[in-house]
Amino acid sequence: MTALALTILLSTSLAAPEFYVAPTGADTNAGTLAAPFATLERARDAVRGTGGTVVLRGGVYRRSATLALTAADSGVTWAAYPGEQPRLLGGLPLPAAAFQPVRDAAVLARLPQESRGQVLVADLAALGVTDYGKLESYGHGRPAPTPIPELFVNGRAQTLARYPKDGWLELRKVLDRGSVWGSNVPGEPELREKPDRGAIFEVDDPHLARWATAPDLWLFGYWWWDWADQAVQVAAIDLAKKTIQTVQPHAYGYRAGGRYYAYNLLEELSAPGEYFLDRATGRLYLLPAVPLAGADITFSQLTTPLLTIDGASNLTVRGLTFECSRVGALRLTNCRASVVRGCTFRQLASTAVNVNGGERCTVRGCDIYDANGGITLTGGDRAKLQPAGHVAENNHFWNYARINRTYISALALHGVGLRASHNLIHGAPHMAIGFGGNDLVMEYNEIYDVCRESNDAGAIYTGRNWSMRGNVIRYNYLHDIHGLDRKGAAGIYLDDCFSSADVIGNVLVDMKGLPFLIGGGRDNVIEDNVTLRTGAFHLDDRGLGWGKRGAAPDGELTVSLKQMPYQSELWRQRYPQLAGILDDNPGAPKGNVVRRNLFVQSPTPQIAGPARQYGNIADNWVAAEDPGFVNLALGDLRLRPDAVALQRIPGFRPPPFEQMGLRVDEDRPTLPPALPAAYPAGGAFCQELAVQVGCRTPGAVLRYTLDGSPPTSASPVCPQPLTLTRSGTLTVIAQVGTQLSEAARYEFRAYALGAADPLPVSLLPTLAADGYSEPKVNTNMAGRPISLRGGAYPTGLTLHPKEQPGGGRATAVYALDGTLRRATRLRGTVGVEDTSGANGSVVCRVELLRDGQWAPAFDSGVLCGGQATKELDVSLTGATQIRLVVTDAGDNIHSDHAAWGGLRLE
C-alpha cells in the first residue's frame, strides 16, 4: 500500500462522525440525516467522546430540563442545519382555543368597564400547568429571586397589567420614609436602620379606590435615586387617608419626587397586550393585542438554564436559538477554548450567556434581545493577575434589561484579561457595559439610546476601587444618550475614585449629559477622544471632599485595596503607582492625564483644581465649529487629512471611526442599517430650517415622517436637505433591502420670533461653556424652576462662576445660525436666583460676535442676592454669536447663582 493510499484510508476511518436530531425524529433511529434522533440527550450520548458534530434541524425543541454537557463532551460541535432555525424553548405553548371570553361575574366586576367584553381567560390548571411562580421584591441591592413565568405572544412579552400604562406616578407627600440602610446623601455614613419598616405615603389618584381590595398588589419604582429601582409589595391601603403602606423598605428610603407604577392588577387590565395571572385559581387573563388564532402563544416555565457546559474544552455551539426561559439560557463553567457563535437569545428573564471561570472562551456574532442581562464574562485570578482570555465580540444587544432596570448590562466583565469588542448595544434603561477587574479591554463598540430611564448613570460604568488597574476603554462610538427626561447621563463613567483606566480615541456624540465623568480617581489617561454636541468633560476631586470617607483607613476603597496583594513584587512591577498610595494623600486625584482631546460644540472641560495641580492637562481644544470632519452633516466623523484639528492639537491621533461597531464576518454576513443622524439634531428654528439626514451605512435609503409616527418601508424617502417650515417630530429609519434600522427621533420647534412667539435661548445648543458647572437649562442650580424676586420663569438659564486666575467667571456661547439671524432683539431678566437668599453678588454681561470680533452689548453692574434685578434688551443686528458672561463681582463665587430669566430671541 502506498503512503498516499494509507493517508487517505486513515483520514477516512478517523473522520469525526455527524449525528442529526430533529423534532420529527425518533431516538430509536440511527441519528443520520435521513433518520435523525428526536432528543438532544440521545444525540449527546451518541457523539460523546468522538469529537464529532450534532446537527440540529429546524423546529422547536421544548425543554423541561437543562441539557447538561461536561468535560466528556469536549471537542464536539453543536450546530444548526444550514438555512434552518433550531429553537430550544423553555416555555409551554398554549393553544389559542384555550382562551375564551370571561363569564365569571365576580371577575367581570373587577375588570375595567372598557375592557370587560374583550378580555379572554385560559385555565392553566386544566392545561397541566401548576407552577405559577411567586411575586417577590427585586431591584437595586436585593438578591435576585426566581422570576415569575411570563406570557409571550408572537415572541413579544405581554405586560403584567399596570397603572399608569406608560410613564410614572409621582411620589408626593411621604409620611414615613421607611427604614434606611444606605446613605441618602453622598458622603454621609449608611444609616443601617433596623428592623425593616416599609414606607407610608399619600396617593392622590382616583385609581386608588379600585386597588383597595386587589390581592397581591405591587409597586415598581425609583424611590430615592434615579439609579436605584425596586419592586415592593403593598401592605395596606387607607382610603380615608389616601395612603399606601409598603411591606419592604428601600435601601435609601422613599422621598417626594420619586416615581413608581402599580402592577399585578386585574383591576387595571385595559390595554392590548396586558395580562393577569390569578395564582389562586390558575386562570390567565389576557387582553389580546393581535388575533390569537394562528399566533405563537408561550408561557415560560423552565427555571434552570437551557444549556450548561461544565469543564469542556474546544466545544462549539453555533447557530442555535435559545428562548423563553425564566432564567438564563447558556452557562459555561470552567471551560477552555470553547466558542458560542451565531446564536440568538431572546425572551429570557436573566442573563443570556454566562461564562464563569476557565480560559479563552469566546461568544461571537450572537443576537441578544428581550432578555434580562446579556453576556457576563468572569474569569482570571486577580491576586495572581492571571488572565482568563475570554472574549465577547461582534454581538448585537437590544432591549436586554426589561425586568430589572438598573445595573443589568449588555456586557459585564469581571476578572482579569477579558475583552469586549465590535459589539452594538442599544435600547436600555440603564448601563451598556459594566466592568470590574484588571487588564480588561473594551474597544470598537457602538452604544446608543441607553440610560434612557435613569440619571447619574453611565453607558460604560465602573467605580469605587483603586486596585482595579490596567483597564482600557478605546475606540468606542457612543451617541444619542440623554438620560431620563433628557436630564443627562454620562458616557464613560469612572465613579468614586476608580483609577488607572486608559480612555483612548473614543467618539461621543449628541449626549445631553457628561461625555466623561471621572469621579476623583488617580492615574487615568484620557487622550485623543472626540466629543460633539455633549455636556462638559468632568474630572473632580471628590476624594478630598464629600467622597473622602471611601479613602479613609476603614473606607471602602482602602478595604478593597488591602484584599489584594498590591505591595507584592508582581503587583509592584505591573502597577508601580499603586504600592505607596496609602502614604500619598490617597483621596487626591493624582497622576491623571487629560491630553489631546477634541471637544466640538461642547462646553469647556470641568477639571478640579487639585486634578490640574497633580496631573497633566494639556493640548485639549474646544472647537465651536466643524474642526474638519469628512461630513459632519451626514454623520461621517472621520477627520480629513487637512482638518484644522490636526493643526490645533499637536500629535493628535484621530480615532478609527470607520472601524467602530459591528463588522461583517462568517457569523454575521450582513449588518443591520445604522441609526440615521440628522444635522441639526433637533432644536428651535425661525420660519424654516434645512436639515441634512444621513446614515453610516452605505447605500441606505432614508425614510421619514414628521408627526412622530414610526416610518415604514412605505414611508416617503427623505429629501436632501429636508426643509422644515413648522414644528414637528422628525422620525427617520434607514432601509437596506428588507432590513430596517431603529428609528431616530428629533424634535423641532418653529418660532415666529415676534413678541407673541419669542424663542427661548435655553432651547439653543450650547457651542461652548465654562463655569462651576454646565449651564442649567430652565432650572436653578438645584434643578427647580428659576425664581427672581419671587417671580417664576419657566425658561431661562442659570450660570455659576468658577474660580479662575482673573477672578470668578462663567460663560455660555450660542450661535445665531441660518434663519436665527432674523432675530433682532435679545431680552430677559437677570439677577441672583432666589435660592441664594441675601447671598451672592454677580455681574451679568452680554457680548456679541460681529464680523469676527467680540464686542460688549450689555453690562448689568453688580447684582446682589435679594436685591433688584435688571432687564436686558440688546440689539442683535449683524451678530452671529451670543456670549453670556457672569463674573463674581470682584469678591468670591459663593452663592453666585446668576439667573437669566426668560432669556429670549425676538
Summarize the structure in words:
The protein contains eight helices and 79 strands. It is mainly beta and 906 residues long. Strands 1-2-5-25-28-31-34-37-40-43-46-49-52-55 form a 14-stranded parallel β-sheet. Strands 3-6-26-29-32-35-38-41-44-47-50-53-56 form a 13-stranded parallel β-sheet, with no helix packed on it. The longest helix has 11 residues, at 3-13. The protein is globular and about 95 Å long.
Bin the strand percentage. 35-45%
The radius of gyration is 30 Å
Instruction: Count up the helices.
Output: 8
Shape: globular
Report the helical percentage. Answer: under 10%
Q: Main sheet, how many strands, which sense, barrel?
A: 14 strands, parallel
Which regions are unreliable across 5 or more consecutive residues at pLDDT < 50? Answer: 1-13
**Based on helices, strands and strand pairing, what is the structural class?**
mainly beta
- Amino-to-carboxy terminus distance: 98 Å
DSSP strand tally? 79
Mean of the pLDDT scores? 94
The strands making up the biggest β-sheet line up spatially as: 1-2-5-25-28-31-34-37-40-43-46-49-52-55
